Amino acid sequence: MSTVFLRTLVCLLLLLFHLKLAASSGGNDSFTFNGFGRLNLTFDGVANVTSDGLLKLTNMSKQSKGHAFYPTPLRFRNLTNGTIFSFSTTFVFGFISAYTNVSGNGMTFFVSPTEDFSAALGSQFLGLFNQSSDGNSNNHVLAIEIDTNYNPDVLDIDDNHVGIDINGVISNASHAAGYYANDNGSFTYLSLRSEKAMQVWIDYDGHEMLLNVTMAPIRMAKPHKPLLSATIDLSSVLLSDPMYVGFSSSTGSFKTSHYVLGWSFRMNGIAEPLDYSLLPSLPRAKSNDKDRIAMVIVSPMLSEPAFQLTSESSKDIGIGKKSGRWTIHVRAISNVFCEFSWC
Ligand SMILES: [Ca+2]
Ligand SMILES: [Ca+2]
């Protein structure tokens, strides 16, 4: 009798499992997280959820990467006619750096066929790619990057931008972080290093093949004009098989924590607005704990340095005499050192 009962129970559980899969493949998936619980997401690398419900993608360690995924892969393609569904997502994020004036490297929202990013690198690759895989059309990855490090090797426009990435970190389109005012269209620059929470909206119109990315400070209504707007046929990027949605983040030389406070997603519709009153707060780093990476302006007329530089590591920035010449070295980008010398 108990064996029959157990078999019945197993059959029921299998039926429920298949019903869940069917629900996740019907093109109507949606979810909203106003703050996170550990069971809301799956994690990789240093990513985790804090006790107060913050998704913490990186944790103030250098050369790190973290990923968080919605546990169930979602179907982005209409199997009847092969087109890509419209979708929309919004999230609130914020970065906390160990330094007063730099952070790095950034984070992405991504759609990927795999949860396995073990071969991906941090730093400018944002935990999604490496030197070999970057730009490969077989990646089938769409990412929206929020980037705080200027990496000229991957054609970054500056050290404070948002980009649309297809299969690699050389962006198809990118723009300095900020928003356009609804009344007069003027552009307001937003510093990603401000340690203030900000919101991003990503909307893809499958019929128009139009991808819009919009951002604003938290609690501001979504601006009418997107920050980025690009016509992209995602049918060559997103696969027929269900794909994972989530966030990646990486650090390089600068110790930074990258946080997500809330996240909403909807296939074939507008993502449910986040409830700001329910979101956890972005932690504040104590300013007197911070190191300062100085901007260095060197005058060749000086015979001795007339300023004091401090850094958490003499490897990042240093000053001294080399072959009788005063020399400043700055590790500005990953392991690239810049040296300035004068007599
Ligand atoms: Ca970068
Ligand atoms: Ca970039």
Question: What is the structure about, briefly put?
Answer:
The protein has 343 residues and is mainly beta. Helix content is 7%, strand content 35%.
Q: How would you explain this protein's 3D organization?
A:
There is one protein chain. The chain has 343 residues and is mostly beta strands. It folds into two domains: 24-289, Sandwich (Jelly Rolls), CATH 2.60.120.200; 295-342, no CATH class. It is built from one helix and 20 strands. β13 and β14 form a beta hairpin. The longest helix is centred in the N-terminal third of the chain and has 23 residues, at 2-24. The structure holds calcium ion (2 copies). Residues 105, 124, 147, 149, 151, 156 line the site of one calcium ion (CA). It comes from Musa acuminata subsp. malaccensis (Wild banana). Its main location: membrane. Residues 29-277 form the Legume lectin domain.
The helical percent reads under 10%
What percentage of the residues does DSSP assign to strands (E)?
25-35%
Number of strands: 20
**Gross geometry:** globular
Mean pLDDT: 84
State the main characteristics.
globular; 343 residues; Jelly Rolls; 1 helix; disordered C terminus; 7-stranded antiparallel beta sheet; binds calcium ion; 2 domains; protein serine/threonine kinase activity; mainly beta; 8-stranded antiparallel beta sheet
Summarize the topology:
Layout: H1 2-24, E1 30-34, E2 42-45, E3 48-49, E4 55-56, E5 65-69, E6 87-97, E7 106-112, E8 142-147, E9 161-166, E10 173-176, E11 178-180, E12 187-189, E13 198-205, E14 210-217, E15 228-231, E16 244-250, E17 256-267, E18 317-322, E19 325-333, E20 336-342
Antiparallel strand pairs: 1-17, 2-5, 3-4, 4-17, 5-16, 6-13, 6-17, 7-8, 7-16, 8-9, 9-10, 11-12, 13-14, 14-15, 18-19, 19-20
The chain binds calcium ion (2 copies).
